[in-house]
Specification:
The complex is a heterodimer of chains A (109) and B (118). Chain A contains no helices and nine strands. Chain A is an all-beta fold and 109 residues long. A five-stranded mixed β-sheet of chain A has the order 1-9-8-3-4, with no helix packed on it. Chain A has a four-stranded antiparallel β-sheet with strand order 2-7-6-5, with no helix packed on it. Classes of the chains: A mainly beta (109), B mainly beta (118).
Chain lengths: 109, 118
């Protein structure tokens, strides 16, 4: 499985867009990029996933570079409730994912 | 729907004791899995199942057993608890998709079971 690299932490202002980067330079052609988040000590929550094309849903947008070696999760209007650990994962089978340390995102008022 | 239900939420064991963490889902999901999360770390896969009667090992299977006799239930057994198994355990379920990857992409997680082994 391709490994991912994420910043350890980042801050963003409430109401502004939060752009979370992820590098996955060894990703293979059939591996998907997934994003989950974990608020406090709750179970992780699915955000979005994609293969090649950019994806958008009610929570976020996922931008994948053309060479697929990196991606960016965009939270369009961050709120205090978006404070969480965000995990970027690449995997073929979504039923067995490997979570790294993730990025701790703190949204400040 | 209750989603994914884990019991117990908290448990304290002594070294050498055995116990079973229960996981049940009411979404008719084929796939179920168990993860553990140690303080300050991400989740690590212990065991997973792609259907009733089918289980396989994840990254850290040693010291744990699983079985999947029904679609709904996926219990995790600790045969002889050790302090190194002190952790938060999460159960997850998902269903296969109709296109693209082999799943929908969305794992549904339980609230976690916090286990302390003394």
């Amino acid at each position: 499985d391709a490994k991912t690299t994420q910043p350890t932490s980042m801050d963003c202002a409430e109401g502004r867009a939060a752009n979370l980067p992820c590098n996955h330079s060894t990703i293979s052609g059939n591996e998907y990029v997934y994003w989950y988040r974990q608020i406090h000590s709750q179970g992780p929550q699915y955000i979005i996933h994609g293969l090649k094309n950019n994806e958008t849903n009610e929570m976020a947008s996922l931008i994948i570079t053309e060479d697929r070696k990196s991606s960016t999760l965009i939270l369009p209007h961050a709120t205090l409730r978006d404070t969480a650990v965000y995990y970027c994962i690449v995997r073929v089978d979504d039923y067995k994912l490997s979570f790294g340390a993730g990025t701790t995102v703190t949204v400040r008022a | 729907n209750a989603g994914v239900t884990q019991t117990p939420k908290f448990q304290v064991l002594k070294t050498g004791q055995s116990m079973t963490l229960q996981c049940a889902q009411d979404m008719n999901h084929e796939y179920m899995s168990w993860y553990r999360q140690d303080p300050g770390m991400g989740l690590r896969l212990i065991h997973y199942s792609v259907g009733a009667g089918i289980t396989d090992q994840g990254e850290v299977p040693n010291g744990y057993n699983v079985s999947r006799s029904t679609t709904e239930d996926f219990p995790l057994r600790l045969l002889s608890a050790a302090p190194s198994q002190t952790s938060v355990y999460f159960c997850a379920s998902s269903s296969p998709g109709t296109s693209g990857g082999r799943g929908t992409g969305e794992l549904f997680f339980g609230e976690g079971s916090r286990l302390t082994v003394l």
